[in-house]
Amino acid sequence: MRSSDLLLSFAATALAARPFLNEPDTGIDDVMGNLTAGELPPLDQIIGLPDFEWAFRHARPAKNYTYYRNGAAGEWSYRNNLEAYSRFRLRPRVMVDITNIESTLSTTILGHNFSAPFFISPAARADYANEVAEAGLVQGAYEGNILYMAALYAKLSIEEIAAAKPTNDTQVTFQQVYLDANDTATKILFERAEKAGSKAIVFTVDSAADGNRHRALRYGVGSADSSYSYITWDYYQKLQNMTTLPVIIKGIMTVEDAVTAVEKGAPAIMLSNHGGRQLDGSPSALEVALEIYQQAPQVFNQTEVYADGGVRYGADALKLLALGCKAVGLGRPFMYANAYGAAGVKKAIDIMKHEIALDAANMGVADIKKINPSFMKWENNNWYS
């Protein structure tokens, strides 16, 4: 066996044997492990985004937690989404004036102004966290001035989510959709989104079939979209003529599809594997972004590129932004935070903003908008770190 093959074999064995830390041990059990069943810890004791998952898991029924937590099959893609970020090292620069870093967090997404380069990704059934359901997400997003992408299979309807906006005329939301070949139903759905004030359509394309979700099936909380769906590039171009709203493609997992999306006129794409819930073995958004950077870097200049999946820390977001992503989505962390309602969602936003600013400053990034691949070591990644 060649030495390179032996090394790869060893790395694979080490990765398979190493325990998976879904929630890293930062002392939370020692400090708050004596909570009674069903009790959420005080919000002011939540330190980082993983704390929200710990709190949710301890305070909500196992079925509710499983609906958000589950992944496909053996959940290796779910695990990889979280672990991919640790395989790439930072290249911090020093002696840089970073004192104004917080003032550079603001960004635009399809021309709309937001306070930070991250958003709430589409995720269904917010009522599993809190009876206020998606109202907590939309109101928290408003208070934190970030984008909320509403899910089609939300507990609240498109119209109810619009009505939950504190200031309906000013808050920007996008509407995620699953579509099939029924043009009449699609036009009605698009019209509802437009009338409700949505500023873009987020077309999910990474779930052409049902997800093979073992954990979810044990608890009876499988996918809401279980049919085989007709999704083609020709169909996408047809959709673009059915609405005046920009139609974002969510679920790009290869450089080839990213290039094709640009050719088909996509105003934006989202690198995503559906949170590892559809196809076990699908790549993380970070791996796809790296593939695009290495093989077709022009894509980042030809369309807006967003990415979601596994982001839990400010440094995770910065790695995606460094490659050229315009903004980063988080799904599960905000769903867990919504156990506290809008206050929890706002706390999660504040945590993420603070971490992005701190980590950027410690990397020697003076302006978030000027972060670039030179701040990362993309070669010789440690696959079993």
From TrEMBL:
One of its GO terms (molecular function) is oxidoreductase activity. The keyword Ribosomal protein does not apply. The active site is at H274. It comes from the Eukaryota. InterPro entries: Aldolase_TIM, Alpha-hydoxy_acid_DH_FMN, FMN-dep_DH, FMN_HAD, FMN_hydac_DH_AS. Residues 41-381 form the FMN hydroxy acid dehydrogenase domain. Glyoxylate binds at Y67, Y178, R213, H274, R277. Its cofactor is FMN. PROSITE patterns: FMN_HYDROXY_ACID_DH_1, FMN_HYDROXY_ACID_DH_2. FMN binds at P122, A123, A124, Q176, T204, K250, S272, D308, G309, G310, V311, R312, G331, R332. Keywords: Flavoprotein, FMN, Oxidoreductase, Signal. Residues 1-16 form the signal peptide. Gene3D superfamilies: Aldolase class I. Belongs to the FMN-dependent alpha-hydroxy acid dehydrogenase family. This is Putative2-hydroxy-acid oxidase. The lineage of its organism: Eukaryota, Fungi, Dikarya, Ascomycota, Pezizomycotina.
